Amino acid sequence: MTNNNASLTLKVLTVNTHKGFTVFNRRFILHELRDAIRQTQADIVFLQEVLGAHHRHASQLAHWPTTTQYEFLADTIWSDFAYGRNAVYPHGHHGNALLSKFPITRYDNLDISVGRHEKRGLLHCVLQPPGGAEIHAICVHLGLRERHRAYQMAYLCRLIENEIPADAPLVIAGDFNDWRMRSQKALSRCSGMVEAFKSRHGQVARTFPARFPLLRLDRIYLRNVRAYEPVALSQRPWSHLSDHAPLAVEIEL
For the Endonuclease/exonuclease/phosphatase domain, which residue ranges apply (predicted)? Predict the structure, then answer.
């Protein structure tokens, strides 16, 4: 993070944490994931599929943290964090989280589930950087069915239109599960958002599966920023830490 007289430069990162396990839940790697996230030096981190609690894992795994996963990942690096619980089951719950080096002045977790079996949410946070305008940040994890995603995208568009000032810096990032690119078109059309990788490289980034990415599921959308540039992240260790590859962008406000 750099703060010049007239501008603020920061880095954002989005990653689906897969609840702190490798693909197929073969190995618990939350500690390695924390190290990898730290090394990006991101100022704002968007997390999907992060566990708020899991009593069975806590009793069976020797290195299970004594805090929530998002608090463990934040540690002493990100002073503020917010969590939106989406899926609840007998042993615990998981959802979206946001880690921030700036104060989070308010946040709201919005239920965008369709039906009873696939719980999804939007975590909307308002951040206050030093000496600058408020930043709106929305962490997204959309459904697996296209019909569900269409409803969820319409909800997101209404949220942007009705709740976020037209001139406020806005970052929307996360796992859109949008391999047919329908959500990409809808969000650009309804809100004037720019997807950072598509704007710079001509295509949305391939992020799934992480070891051999084929599908373009994860995105970082921006509005009301002075400049932005996607950041290249090395395949290792990321390809062995989640089933999704992370994305990062440097932003100037």
Answer: 32-244
Q: What are phi and psi of 49, to 5 degrees?
A: 55, 50
pTM value is: 0.95
Scan for tokens 């002493």, then name that residue. Answer: 76
Do 117 and 148 form a contact (C-beta atoms < 8 A)? no
Q: Domain boundaries in the chain?
A: 8-252
For residues 30, 33, 34, 39, the Cα torsion angle rounded to the nearest 10 degrees is: 170
Cα-based angle 241, 245, 248 (whole degrees, multiple of 5): 115
Q: Across the 253 residues of the chain, what is the mean pLDDT of every consecutive 10-residue run?
A: 77 95 84 96 97 90 91 96 93 94 98 91 96 93 94 95 95 95 80 92 94 95 96 90 95 96
Q: What contacts 197, CB < 8 A, 6 or more positions away?
A: 203, 204, 205, 219, 220, 230, 247, 249
Which architecture does CATH list for 8-252?
4-Layer Sandwich (3.60)
For residues 20 and 68, the answer to whether their CB atoms sit within 8 Å is: no
